[in-house]
Here is the input.
Amino acid sequence: MTSVTTIDPAERFLRRQTPIQRVHHVLHAYPAISPLIVLVAASVVFGLVNPRFFMPENLSLIGQQVAVVGALAIGQTIIILTAGIDLSVGAVMVFTAMIMASSVASFGLPAPAALALGVVVGTAAGGINGLLVTRLRLPPFIVTLGTLNVFVALTLLYSGGQTVQSQDIPDLLLWPGQAIDFGSFKITTGVIMMLLMYAVGSYVLRNTAWGRHIYAVGDDIEAARLAGISVSRLLLSGYMVAGFVYAITAWIMIGRVGAASPNAATDANLDSITAVVIGGTSLFGGRGLLIGSLLGALIVGVFRNGLALAGVDVLWQTLVVGVLVIVAVATDQWIRRVRA
Amino acid sequence: MTGTMGTPSPIIEARGLIKTYGSVVALDGADFELYPGEVLAVIGDNGAGKSTLIKCLSGALVPDEGEIRVEGQPVHFRRPQDARAVGIETVYQSLAVAPALDIASNMYLGRELRRPGVLGSVFRMLDHGAMQRHAREQLQHLGIGTIQSITQAVETLSGGQRQAVAVARAAAFGSKVIILDEPTAALGVKESAQVLKLIRDLRDRGLPVILISHNMPHVFEVSDRVHIQRLGRRVAVVTPATHTASDAVAIMTGALDAAGATSAA
Here is the structure.
């Protein structure tokens, strides 16, 4: 312990590493590497199969297709890092989108006020999830399964099942759909908003005490509590931040679709979890990087786009995404078993 | 704590602590004193109330009745943070470390350092560099040199190294008292020896240590006084100089009458 620098043969035996173990350690230390490898490899293969894959138009399209799920995955990642899960993401987003659009179309609210109202509603919806998890001490799976149905129903009740058409939506709410051209490469405001949220979110999770506490609570809730972290307040704030993210994503979705439909984005709940899981964040909490979820969303987008370009049927695309999820979780389990 | 400097006043003193769980009486009027610069072991059979006693002192439990004083001042701990605020740090048997977080993050968990200036005050930016530097210094200070990197995850450490991290965290922030709950229970011979040395090092730096342990050889090797808890009360305080481990076990189990053994206090 004091100055033990010599290693006896037994210790050297224990410390020896096979090449696989070295890879294992690197993957354990840098969890975003494996999704990055998958993303690059898949892109190269799809580019070889169909050169159109790397055309600027196609890459722009992938970006737009990924924007909504990618942005939702930010909130989902925060929840999953706390060892929770949010099944209500898509429902909260659609509910918020309907509030934003119809408060202008039906109630004549000015566009900025409608946007602000939507953000408040989204954050409050996250807060409801958080209160149910922390006050009633219910499992997040159950809470958000319940609120998923509640918000789907509220959306339909409130909207009467009617879509708010694009001509009734003010320009401000459609703004995330605006494209900025870089030659033939188009990037929409919504994609930029998503990327900005990733940048801010990554900073907060890595460089603030709040972010480190999100990891600590998901890693070992009792250790976090004994370290003096107010676990309930932290979890509640995590769900509220997630709700805020879903509200901004609702804005991105209105811009992307050009309308607000109560039946939109029905797959978004599970797609956001898929992106997080493929991105290497552990469903057991405490491990993962936000940037991994962006990679995860891009992987799904690239696979769907690339397979479509290769002429593969949409059902096979879905099958491939399912296999990806299972492979990703299996890899996560293996990475977690790093030897001391 | 022989009488060479008269009678110093205790750092922590507890009188008549009572704690019940329904009809179960965990503490039945327990007393406690810890003096400056000593290693005090707390021993007792299962159910004797030693864990409950220690949890009252570390703020993890609130006693039903009784008084706790720190340096003569009455205190009312409601949460572990309250005890920590007056300089009492506890290393729990579970260690209370987050396995996926690195060593420095664990040592500063819940009291992170922020960058000076605008970066810290407005952007809430943590000072990872300073935390890693201090954590490394603290570990070296305690003579724990075998940890390869301060940024490695705690789960990649051996049991003894994890224990060392938890003790180093307590030592870094505990300005008055360090409480160690069963620190050697899960360790091998070599690692236990490291932890016992850590305890002596802490005492030599002037920090009194409360050691809860079932391991009589360890208790008698390292402690100055031994607080014996039985049926919710302190029945005796002995010293390794005047009593053997088997005496202590006899008092602990009630085989030996405690009368006459308390003089060591």
